[in-house]
Design brief:
By secondary structure, the chain is α/β, with parallel strands linked by helices. The protein is built from 9 helices and 6 strands; from the N terminus they run βαβαααβαβααβααβ. The chain binds adenosine-5'-triphosphate (ATP), the ligand Nc1ccn([C@@H]2O[C@H](COP(=O)(O)O)[C@@H](O)[C@H]2O)c(=O)n1 and magnesium ion. The site of adenosine-5'-triphosphate has 15 residues, from α1 and α8.
Length: 222
C-alpha cells in the first residue's frame, strides 16, 4: 500500500502545489454514496464533492454545457471527462481543504485516466458500496428528490453503465490493493459503522488506516 502523501505531480511532471488526500467513493446508483459521504463529513475533516451534484449545478447555472449535460444525465450517459474534471478542480480549489471525498467519479476508464493525467493525483483508497440492483432500484424509486434520472427507464440505463463502465474502474483499483468493499445492503447506521472503521477515530489520519486496511481489500467488510 503506497503512501497517501506520496508523489502527486501536475500535468508538467513538476511537484503539485499541494498533495491533497483523495478518496474516491464509488458504487452503483442508489448504493448510498451521498448518504454515507454526509456522515463522513460530519465525523472527519473531509470535503464532499459529488460529480453528479456538480454537473447538476452546472446545468442550473445556465452554462453553455448545460443542455449537453442535461441530455447525458437523462440518458444515464457519462459526461466527457474534460467537463467534469474542470468542475472538480474548481471545487477543490474553492474548498480551501486538502482532504476530499470524490463521489461518483471516476465513472469510466476515460474519467480515471484523464483525472490522473491532469491532476497527478492518486487516490488514497477507494470506498466501494456494494449493493444488489433490486435494493438500489427500490431506494432510487423512493428517493423523491425530483431528479430527472430517478425513473425506471433511466435507472436501468444507469445500472448498465455501472456494470459496463464503472465496475472495470473498481477492478483496476482493486488490482492495486486500493478498494475497500463495503456491504451497503444494510441500514444507514450499520453501513456507517463499517465506514467509521475504515476512516478510523476522529483524530486518526487516513494514511495509517489506509495501510492497515490493505490486508482486507479483497473481502467485503461488514
Ligand atoms: N443503507 C440505506 N438503507 C436504506 N436507504 C438508504 C440507505 N442509504 C441511502 N438510502 C436512501 O437511498 C436513496 C439513495 O441514496 P444516495 O442518494 O445516498 O445514493 P447514491 O449512491 O448517492 O445514488 P446516486 O448514484 O444516484 O447519486 C436515498 O433516498 C437515501 O436516503
Ligand atoms: N463522473 C460522472 C458522474 C456523474 N455523471 C452523470 O451524472 C449522473 C448522476 O450522477 P450521480 O452520481 O449523482 O448518480 C450520472 O448518471 C451521469 O449521467 C457523469 O457523467 N460523470
Ligand atoms: Mg449521489
Amino acid at each position: 500500500m503506497g503512501s497517501v502523501e506520496a508523489t502527486n505531480k501536475d500535468a508538467n511532471g513538476s511537484p503539485a502545489e499541494k498533495n491533497p488526500t483523495v478518496v474516491f467513493v464509488l458504487g452503483g446508483p442508489g448504493s448510498g454514496k451521498g448518504t454515507q459521504c454526509a456522515n463522513i463529513v460530519d465525523n472527519f475533516k473531509f470535503t464532499h464533492l459529488s460529480a453528479g451534484d456538480l454537473l447538476r449545478a452546472e446545468i442550473k447555472s445556465g452554462s453553455e454545457n448545460g443542455t449537453m449535460i442535461q441530455n447525458m444525465i437523462k440518458e444515464g450517459k457519462i459526461v466527457p471527462s474534460e467537463v467534469t474534471i474542470k468542475l472538480l478542480q474548481k471545487a477543490m480549489k474553492e474548498s480551501g481543504n486538502d482532504k476530499f471525498l470524490i463521489d461518483g467519479f471516476p465513472r469510466n476508464e476515460e474519467n480515471r485516466a484523464a483525472f490522473e493525467k491532469v491532476t497527478g493525483i492518486e487516490p488514497a483508497f477507494v470506498l466501494y458500496f456494494d449493493c444488489p440492483e433490486e435494493e438500489m432500484e427500490r431506494r432510487l424509486l423512493s428517493r423523491n428528490q425530483g431528479r430527472e434520472d430517478d425513473n425506471i427507464e433511466t435507472i436501468r440505463k444507469r445500472f448498465k453503465v455501472f456494470l459496463e463502465s464503472s465496475l472495470p474502474v473498481i477492478n483496476y483499483y482493486d488490482a492495486k490493493g486500493k478498494v475497500r468493499k463495503i456491504n451497503a445492503a444494510r441500514s444507514v447506521e450499520e453501513v456507517f459503522e463499517t465506514v467509521k472503521g475504515i476512516f478510523g477515530s476522529k483524530n486518526e489520519k487516513v494514511i495509517s488506516v489506509s495501510i492497515a486496511c490493505s490486508v482486507v481489500s479483497h473481502f467485503v467488510i461488514t
